[in-house]
Amino acid sequence: MNAAETPDSDSTPNSASAPNSEAVPGPAITALGGGHGLYATLSAVRRLTDRVTAVVTVADDGGSSGRLRAELGVVPPGDLRMALAALAGRDDEVRVWTETVQHRFGGTGALAGHSVGNLILAGLAEVAGDPVTALDMLARVLDVRGRVLPMSPIPLDIEADVSGLESDPRVSRCIRGQVAVATTPGKVRRVRLIPADPPACPPALDAVCEADLVVLGPGSWFSSVIPHVLVPDLHEALVHTTALKVLVLNLAAEPGETAGFSAERHLHVLAQHAPDFRVDHVVVDAASVPEGREREHLSRSAARFGADVSFVDVAETGTHRHDPAKLAGALETCLSSRGGIRAARGGGRESVSWQ
């Protein structure tokens, strides 16, 4: 996993404004992903700005989320709940609410394994009739800094072509479900969404188009990262946004879907699924890719995306988790290297005074 612990401090680099001047807002940052990987990104970017939007995958079919999805037909709430917790306020009263939302029931009864937040989101969605309204309602309770949105307003399924499950390694088998894809002992070759042409969440499209910085990854590559480029309208928004786009690679291959993958292979499969997708920077933990030929190969692969590679220390010492402060620093450097503005990219912003 590439999870990051909840940061102890949420001070941001945005300096206080001069006397008698208006406060300058931070950059608008939109982060896409799911699960622990997105939690890591959100824990980092909240240090840079309060203008954060999380766009979250909605294909989870396991655990509490899978049960609620199957029983109620709701968008799976687990990854959405984690994103809310990552952006929640840090005063004592809100912390109690966040801990409660994250609490998971034990025992062996009907509630065993469910998290409180999943149940609240499922209930709010039924009452409000809309998952986005439900998320906004719970966000107010948690004093969320920014907004959390599903990538699609309907639950999706992931289907994958997997080799290595038959005696003949050339034969692929089709498997379905996020959990099945994430834990397969075979090699995932390609993934698809079901339905194949799902709607995108309109506010999520706006968040991508209006962002100063869009961050994709880290996370489960086939089940949390690549699905974002498979939603047609979201794919178009990601291709055409004037935002600076940064891809954050995992610190290590994950058991199951990306076992044995090099950093270069992660880029290769993303390019296979979205040949016209381009990014400006690829952030890679320096310790995860040795100097020499492996870095050269990775840099060549990144160049196909039009991207520069930043080899930086972004890991929490002794773990395979991203350190929020280090990752925030790396992303801020990416912003600074391009001025952090959309004006230079045709977006019309005129200053970088938030820096």
From TrEMBL:
It is found in: Cytoplasm. Keywords: Cytoplasm. InterPro entries: CofD, CofD-like_dom_sf, Gluconeogen_factor. Residues 9-20 have a biased composition (Polar residues). Residues 1-28 are annotated as: Disordered. It comes from the Bacteria. Belongs to the gluconeogenesis factor family. Required for morphogenesis under gluconeogenic growth conditions. This is Putative gluconeogenesis factor. It comes from Rhodococcus rhodochrous J3.
